[in-house]
Fold these 4 entries.
Entry 1:
Amino acid sequence: MGAVAVILRVMPESPEVDIEALKAAIREKIPGVSDMRDEPIGFGLVALKVATVIQDEEGATDGIESQFLDIPGVDRAEIVDLSRMI
């Protein structure tokens, strides 16, 4: 097996969620986060694009999405890009 680079869009529960605190919680709870960027959505809502590396094994993508859902303030997390690392 190899490693897979995954980019997820993480949506906060509301515009009132403290984005900096959410970023800190993500870095603390999700191993392998290599980059995180703000993505303005509208009406004050800011999503996060999070890049991380996971092992290429069955169910790994479902597992990473559910890890994000366990973080307070996260409404949903969806994979927007996935690529195998060489």
Entry 2:
Amino acid sequence: MDAFVELSAELTGFSAEELTSTGLVEQYRALADGASEAEIIQLWYTGVWRGVIPTERAYAEGLAWKAIGVSPPGSAAPGFGSWEQRPRRSAR
């Protein structure tokens, strides 16, 4: 397994497969070269790198959203009448 993915899995508590499924491993590996563990954690959970969101996808794939089981605001339309239903719980 790739050392960056292995380290990221250990730091975030998400599996290597979950991290790889974001499609951001290569981009994050390039950004995080020489970064601290705290910066790597922040990047994965928030999709923000040193105050900047590198791509729209980084925001939408932030692990914070997956951890609390919701879609990121503005990234997925819930549909008409959705305010009448309780939010779905994550399988996590």
Entry 3:
Amino acid sequence: MALTSRSTMLISMVIFVVQVSSAQECSNYNFNQVFNSCIDLPVLQAHLHWNYIPSTKSIQIAYRANQTSRGWIAYAINPSGPAMVGSQAIVAFQSSNGSLVAYPTPITSDKPSMQPGALSFQVSNLSAAYANNEMTIFAILGPLEDAANVSHVWQAGDSVENDIPQPHATSGPNIQSMGIINFIPS
């Protein structure tokens, strides 16, 4: 039985609706810990959950994004403004031995090494998780000088070779994944 173009369009719409509804918005997502704030980021099917810790001027984060087990994700704060270069990033991926890896890496050029390195602020309690085609980075970042006006960048790439994240796409959502965020609750 041949499908008509209308039938094909309806099937495509159903598949799209199922895919969109399978991604949970941040307000409906539950972790084993409580996050007081969250935002559904506008591109890359990503979400940021956080708690601001006033006593240390630090941010406890859970950054999660749709990803395959072959890809990588990254979340970064850029103290110098809304751009990739200058970002202080945390990257996560599944290593060649099958374990999840998460580490800090400074982004110093348009073609960063993506090797582990020190950031301009402290990173603690760093870990990663992978389940249901979603990768999550957990960390505490800071102290931050100004948690009310923070330039942040989030990213995803399709491949990891020899345990090094490979370059992400340089068009579309991958170059739109930056903004300003206020971590301090109102």
Entry 4:
Amino acid sequence: MGIRLRILSWWTPEWLLKKGLDELASSTIHGLGELLCENSSPENNENYNKQVILNGNLDEKRKLMARAHNKLVESLIENVGKDEAISQGRQVMFQKGLFLGQRFRKILGVGNHLNDLINAARILYSALGIDFQVEENKRGEITMVVNHCSLARDYNPPTCQILSAADEGVVQGLNPNIKMEFTQKITEGCSHCLASIKLMN
């Protein structure tokens, strides 16, 4: 583990968490906004290229981001239908997440070891108010278990389904040899989220 990642995994200043949350919010809101613009009539398009500013503390910023995501996803569903909105939205969000993961990999100094990925994910997820643990069973299967997600209080299920693709993209961006896929979500009525983690080499 690099020295930068080691230090930040011990203690991450709030200003850095806010900066990371703002970057994530800006990227995902713009991505959904651009997708909505592509699938709606010009007179209904809003300008999503303006800077996204989320005021307040971390919890307030999360709520504002979740509301923006919900509004965009609801509008996208109205224009193209639920199934198509989820399909297109997940593709766009995965790519946004992948780019952010690659960027954070450089910023945090993430190496190729699984523990580096886990420590980096803890930093990023702390900005989102998400608490998780990683478990490995006797068969060597690795699972991320999310016990608490502050976004689950505000996300509707389609929004969570779409935005979870950004998480999956971030993980692959942090380590191109690791793939994560959610198999269970709190927003679907489950007590916790589950995501399988697979090493691809």
